[in-house]
Amino acid sequence: MEKDKVLNKLSRRNFLRNSVIAATGVSLLPSLLSSCKDDEVLDYKPDGESGFFEGVASFDPAQDRVVLWTRYTLAQNGNTNPVILLDVATDKDFKEVVASESVAVDVNSDYTVNVDVSNLKSNTKYYYRFRDQQTGAASVIGETKTLPAAGEVNEVKMAVVSCANFQSGLFNVYGAVAESEADVVVHLGDYIYEYGRGGYGTSALTTSLGREHEPEGEIITIEDYRGRYRQYRRDEQLQKAHQLKPFICVWDDHEITNDAYKDGAQNHQPDEGDYNTRKLNALQVWHEYLPARTADKTKIYRSFNVAGIVHLMMLDTRIIGREKQLEYTDYLTPSGLNSAAFLADWQNPQRTILGEEQRNWLLTEISGSQAKWQVLGSQVLMGKIFIPAELLLFTAQLAAGNASPELLAGYNRLVTELVTIKARLMQGDASVSDAERARVETVLPYNLDAWDGYPVEREVVFAAAAAAGKDLVALAGDTHNAWSSKLSTAGGNQIGTEFATASVSSPGLEAIFGNKPEVVKGIEQAFQLLVEDLNYLNASERGYLLTTFSGNEAKAEWRFIQTLEVKNTTTTTGKTVVEA
After folding, report:
1. What is the C-alpha separation between 173 and 159, in angstroms, rounded?
2. What are the tens digits of pLDDT across the range 137-149?
3. What backbone torsions phi and psi does residue 566 show, to the nearest 5 degrees?
4. Model confidence over 235-268: pLDDT tens digits?
5. Which residues of 159-172 are buried (b: 16+ CB within 10 A; e: fewer)?
6. Using an 8 Å Cβ cutoff, are 23 and 98 in contact?
């Protein structure tokens, strides 16, 4: 299928098929079972399992509205077009009901229910539930909250999460987020993983915990993606997070396939069919399970105004505009890296991670907002992670899974040498030679799949923020590790800060370097010393990021769980950073 036809087909899909207007200043009675008599309900005996097994969820809160979600599994002898009732109230006992209406199950969208409820009050908690008129089945009671308007609150708390691999262990991070004080959850992608059983993320815990991927193979078809989402959404702790917190989501690559970009992906092979058809399948199912309030379903970039304090701009740095990532291996010659060819391509002013339309939208959003904090929900790292060029070859080999004892030993020797030189420079040691200085100051980007691979466009965004005099904060996921970096221009001027979250369960750098604490700690310290803009790195723990924004400061707390092996939502705060 041609790419334009694929995208046009998706953009025309309407996943928010239900719209409910809440009553204001009046309390309604929950809808009566008007389409069938009580004795008909009592006489009905469902054949097979039926119910709301994937729980409930809420998405894209605004000051006056929120999207409510569920999925309904029909009994074998149930009505193929069941009448589902949605009740929304301001109390958990449903005595103060503001909406109670029948809504449609979308049989063409895997029996999901997406309802955009409007006319709500700002900064208000609401309770909701779904019920089947025929069977009497009812969902759990969900909780959600509308965003505050300007002046209603003094601070905004957002939990930031990404990268949840079902095969890697329990979703304790989601359980911790559910119990947190966050008002809203910002999910930066890799909500699912596309690999089959035994693929990436598999560990000793996979079999012992019974967390093998379903369906068994790598997901490609629309039914494959739906099956994988159903598996993830039946996880107890993910359900709890959705039940108690509204989510704002964007996709990253694994919702489609690894290292995806506009026209292809590393993990899509010719024998797996047409890439754009696969992408259409993936994005359609994403909207079925993670609805976003966008008119064009191929364009998920959108903004949220939170209390006049935060202007949250959710980006698509993965699919809509991203050109293919550069790879160092394409520039290797028998004599080493062809630096001239690489630099020419890397600094090409036409290279884009956003695409022209999204970039223009973003620049307009930044310049037009009056909020104190301009916050970017960017799937991938925006800060510069430039490492000494000597380390690149070692790092690439380790990342490819070639962590032999000899290679690790060589890596450690090199890091020790470079750290020693850098420490001498920082101490003002005049005996450091020009050759030694060049070893630590000749740097290249560590990860070309991040904003580091698109430096010219990053400078354009930074320039817009600087010109508007805005306080810029980038939120990121993708790497599975926790980072904090300065956002600085090519000229070294700081225009903001990046807070990047660790993963829910996907393995971090410890999967490459091993789990020995002294080794991981050494890597963390070496990165923080050798990378100019980097202030913090946690390379081995799983967790989430709690951000608190006020009129005076932006605070980030990296909270880490203790284990993926047994259910335990206890967290410790590994680092707190405050920006004024």
Report:
1. 11
2. 999 999 999 999 9
3. -130, 155
4. 999 999 999 999 999 999 999 999 999 999 999 9
5. bbbbbbbbbbbbbb
6. yes
- Each residue of 94-146: pLDDT tens digit? 999 999 999 989 889 999 999 999 999 999 999 999 999 778 899 999 999 99
Contacts of 54 (CB under 8 A, 6+ apart): 70, 71, 230, 233, 234, 239
Give the E-state strand segments of 338-442 in sequence order. 373-377, 386-388
- In three-state secondary structure terms, 167 is helix
Is the pTM of the predicted complex or chain greater than 0.85? yes
CA 139 to chain CA mean position, Å: 26
User: Would you state the structure tokens that stand for residue 317, as one six-digit string?
Assistant: 């740095």
Q: Which segments of 180-235 does DSSP mark as H helices, in order?
A: 204-208, 222-233
Residue 463 to residue 543: CA distance in whole angstroms: 32
> 264 has which bridge partners?
261
What tokens appear for 432 in the block? 């450091």
Amino acid at 398: L
Q: Residues near 364 by Cβ (< 8 Å), separated by ≥ 6?
A: none
Q: At what angle do helices 222-233 and 236-244 cross, to 10 degrees?
A: 80
- The token pair at 358 is 């999204």
Name residue 558's beta-bridge partners.
545, 575
Containing 341, the helix (H) or strand (E) segment is helix 339-346
Q: What are the tokens at 514?
A: 């091993």
